């Protein structure tokens, strides 16, 4: 059974940082591309970042230079380091792989 479990969300002030984690199981993590996608209140899904099996990374323009995606092959976990957070980054962040989704983790950026 494929499982993706996100964690690390919370409330942070503008300019702050958070690190999200996504623990994966039930598939061959080493061979899988992993994605972070977010959904802001009242809006649709927005792709944030991808990391491929060779660790190549891609980012949406809205987060480039502020967010960093990485993966730990030993822990079957993908991370999203988010720096210089803005109120518009407020959203539920989801991990995605092979069409499977985690339950999401809420990130709220507010003073």
Polypeptide structure, described:
- With 111 residues, this protein is mainly β.
- Helix content is 0%, strand content 52%.
- It has strands at residues 3-7, 10-12, 18-25, 34-39, 45-51, 57-59, 67-72, 77-82, 91-97, 100-101, 105-109.
- Strands 2, 4, 5, 6, 9, 10 and 11 form a 7-stranded mixed sheet that branches. It has a 4-stranded antiparallel sheet with strand order 1-3-8-7, with no helix packed on it.
- The protein is globular and about 40 Å long.
- The model has no long low-confidence stretch (mean pLDDT 96).
- A hairpin with a 5-residue loop joins β4 (34-39) and β5 (45-51).
- The termini are far apart.
Provide the β-strand percentage band: over 45%
Overall SS class: mainly beta
Average pLDDT taken over every residue: 96
**Uncertain segments:** none
Shape by Cα distribution: globular
Largest beta-sheet details: 7 strands, mixed
Number of strands: 11
Give the helix level as a range of percent.
under 10%
**End-to-end CA span:** 40 Å
Helix tally equals 0
